[in-house]
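S.,

As promised, the NAP run. Input:
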Amino acid sequence: MTDQKVIWITGASSGIGRAAALRFANAGYALILSARDLEALEEVKAQCPTSDHVKILGLDLAKSEEMPNKTQEAIAMFGKIDILLHNAGISQRSLIKETALSVDRKLMEINFFGTVALTKAILPHFIQNQQGHFGVVSSLVGKFGTPYRSAYAASKHALHGFFDTLRAEHFQDHITVTLICPGFIRTNVSINALTADGSPLNEMDEAQEKGMKPEDCAEEIFKAINRKKEEVLIGGKETYAVYLKRFFPTLFSKILNKAKVR
Ligand SMILES: NC(=O)c1ccc[n+]([C@@H]2O[C@H](COP(=O)([O-])OP(=O)(O)OC[C@H]3O[C@@H](n4cnc5c(N)ncnc54)[C@H](OP(=O)(O)O)[C@@H]3O)[C@@H](O)[C@H]2O)c1
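Predicted complex:
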């Protein structure tokens, strides 16, 4: 078993997950990188300071039934896992009235049920070790809903309910949770977002284009996980919306009704 801290990162092939992988690698962590695109994961591995402590494990969150075996494979890679960063996910750009139910289900399947299946698979390992940390990449829309993101917002809200409960149920096992709520981060998230019929948007949203660099987001994630913060908001002035919604909900609704953000 390695002496290094081991972090398993899902969605490490692109965007925030890729940047987080490089940040943790630079800090001397051993890494397990997961996603579907193995070639992209190899590229991330090649950019790490040393490839000796970086393993690749292909994973499709839509295949919940595979999570127990994948988790055993992941644990065997370094003999233990200290941190699981649940980062993989897909977004949405479509109105409720136009969106096929199959698209709502797909968003829940990947963002919520896939994440839950992986959590249940690794939980016995964390309980046995009497330590373990979950980083969970939610979104600002895990705190409120905005147009064009109904099922995406629902899937992220669901993660808050699930992981707030897990934190309380496993406090005595020294298992900790950081819920991470990014705003606009410059990644391919809008390009990959599902539209009403389930096809990808294939367009970079203006808000994402002007958003925070993934490397800066990864730095904030790194700090929040090291400090075991319970929840962190990451981004620009869009993060103020969380406080507006909490303390002035009617004003928040009025602003949202006029907002032009797709
Ligand atoms: N960018 C933002 O503005 C923003 C804001 C709030 C929250 N977020 C959240 O941040 C996380 C990372 O997104 P990103 O912005 O970095 O977007 P991204 O560049 O599109 O990256 C998404 C990652 O998720 C992986 N993924 C997608 N479907 C998967 C599946 N079925 N199984 C396994 N992995 C899958 C992708 O890898 P493969 O395609 O190789 O499988 C990719 O590595 C997501 O949870 C997203 O909801 C992003």
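The two ends are 48 Å apart (CA to CA). The chain has one domain: 6-236.

- D.
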